[in-house]
Amino acid sequence: MTAAALAPSPATQRMLHGPVLPTLLRLATPNVLGLFANTIVIGFDGYIVGRLGADALAGVALVLPLAMLMLQMSAGSLGGSTTAVVARALGAGDAAEATRLAQHALLVGLAASLLFTLLAASPALYAAMGARGGVLAQAGSYASVLFAGASAVWSVNVLAGIARGTGGMAAAAGALVATTAMHLVLCPLLVFGAGPVPPLGVAGAALSTVTCNALAALGLLAWLSRGGQRVRMIGSPWRLQATVFRRVLALALPSSVNPFLSNGSIAVATAYVGGFGTLAVAAYGIAARPEYILVPIAFGVGSALTAMVATNIGARQPNAPSA
What we know:
Blueprint: H1 10-17, H2 20-50, H3 54-91, H4 95-120, H5 123-128, H6 133-148, H7 150-165, H8 169-192, H9 202-223, H10 242-255, H11 257-273, H12 278-314
Helix pairs in contact: 2-8, 2-12, 3-4, 3-6, 3-7, 3-10, 3-11, 3-12, 4-6, 4-7, 4-10, 6-9, 7-8, 7-9, 8-9, 11-12
Protein name: MATE family efflux transporter
Membrane topology: Multi-pass membrane protein
Pfam family, one: MatE
């Protein structure tokens, strides 16, 4: 039996025929819980790095807008677009097309991660933002590790978007919760060291982020490759097609404008504040974190709604099912 011949999954059936509000709440609840775990990481990292001193906090504050740009583009712009195209194909009953779209989206994410590795890891960028001395050293140490592992961040968020498109909100949320749980243990260990583990400082926080995201990505990839899955990442042939890339990018590129504008404005403001000294940058970095905490909660509901709407559009039933 081919992927296209499989019957709609229970999750797809609920999105197509279930009552709107209960179905939305059922999908959004694990999403919000999973993405709320991301907010814990944002605050926790600020606390851990803050214990290293003002230079460390200021250095990470300079990198934060680019780190959040990567997160929002991978999870929101490309991840959300992937949810939409996969859900729409499954709503139309074409699991083979959903798999092709998922595979191409993952490759787009890996290509985008390479851009971040090439452009955002260099200390020269943070020097151009006004970093000097110890602040520049800390920014360079954190960024070089974080963006060297950018592929892990992009992969886990695109794979989570694919899982949401299939209706697997719990799997996507579970990956985020597992990432957070691992990071809460690994981050302080790598930053401060213990026993045979040497203290790595801010580089340890970045290494923990990369490692935990990589492990979560492998878990999601395994989940999306099981037998009987409507979308199988491994076990289905990979045939690259320009038209499929264009379908993914047609949604992802316009969706990237807002993260660029919001994070770009914070980066400019951070560079401006840098003219007032290390403590000012460190304080601004602390103040900027609560703003980032609001985004994942809203995205939790939005991504569930994206999956529902796209599935119904794919099934050619734009009118809502029973209310």
